[in-house]
Each structure stands twice: as structure tokens, then as C-alpha cells.
What does this fold into?
Amino acid sequence: NAGVMQNPRHLVRRRGQEARLRCSPMKGHSHVYWYRQLPEEGLKFMVYLQKENIIDESGMPKERFSAEFPKEGPSILRIQQVVRGDSAAYFCASSRNKGENEKLFFGSGTQLSVL
Amino acid sequence: DQQVKQNSPSLSVQEGRISILNCDYTNSMFDYFLWYKKYPAEGPTFLISISSIKDKNEDGRFTVFLNKSAKHLSLHIVPSQPGDSAVYFCAASAYNNNDMRFGAGTRLTVKP
It folds into this structure.
């Protein structure tokens, strides 16, 4: 009963380094969403992907952030040249379809700390 | 642009009593509403949902009420148990949108 798998659980980076966060959706799910949670805030939508396609990246910062969901393998959220403000919990979610009344299943998140 | 608001950051109730968590939204296009529960160091887990065609949905100890005219929904937990202590997120989505909007969360503490 594998749920949404995210790794690593914790990631420490120094300013200027790159961070790569991985997400494997639930079996049978082809829709992946990335959310970010800053301290004391709710979950903020970042990007929605289907296999090999970015459907909606309206929540992604314009620079340094990118996401992909290749045909084979997990979805990757990449943050280049990290800054302290990137420190947050990043959650991936998946769904079977994109349709009416579709709920999301979340992974345990990756806590990114930028020193 | 916070379209989903949870104005109470925390709530404390006694075991056995009712917990009422509130959520307000501004976007009239939202047609599906959900509550997620989150324990520390874990991802949010789905708890209960309601479609805009209903005004109430019940699942065991959990009931969600929707007041469309007031753009308000609430989650009732009765009786509350210590294991219910967690952060509860309200979420809303519209069929023609790709993102599900979340509130800032309410931390519920149920005291034995």
C-alpha cells in the first residue's frame, strides 16, 4: 500500500547550492502537484504536472525553480542557487485524475533547510 | 491573495466535548471543499469533503457544514479525542482550476 513517496525527508543546503526534491506518486496516479509550506502558513500551490507535461506552474517563482515529471521515474522539484528564504516544507501530492471532486493524496514532505 | 481563510490559528477543547473549526472563502467558483489533518513531520491526510450541491456531510465523529451564501464551512468533531490533536487545513477547489487552495491551518489540542 505505497502512498506518495518523497525523498529526502530532510535536506540541508548552503546558500548558492542546488536542491533536488523527489516525489513518486501513488500507484495508478498520473497527476502530481507540488506545494510549499512556510512556517505558520498554509500550503501554497506551486506546480501541477502530468507525465512529461507541466500543466500549470502559476505558483512557481519565476527564477531558480523548475519541475519535471518524466515518462520514467519520479517527479523532481529543482531549486537552483538556494537562498535562506527557500527554507520550507515541500509537499508533493498526487491524484488519479484531474476531474470533479478529486482529492489529493500527500507525501510526508521534504524539509529544506538553507544555511 | 488568500482565497481560503482560517482565522483561528489554534483551538483547545476538553476530551469528549465538541470541536468546531471554521473556514471562510472568497472565490465563488469553488465547488468542492475538503478538510485535511496533519500531524507533525507527516503530510496532510484527507479527512472529509463536501460538494457545493450539499450543505452537510457526515462521517462518524466528523461532520462538515457548508453555507454557500456566507461562503463559510465548518468542521465539527464530536466527541473530541486526544488523538484528534493535530493541525487541520481547510481546502477548496474549482473544477476549472488546477490548484487546490489551502487555509493557514488551525491547531487543535484536545485535553484529556
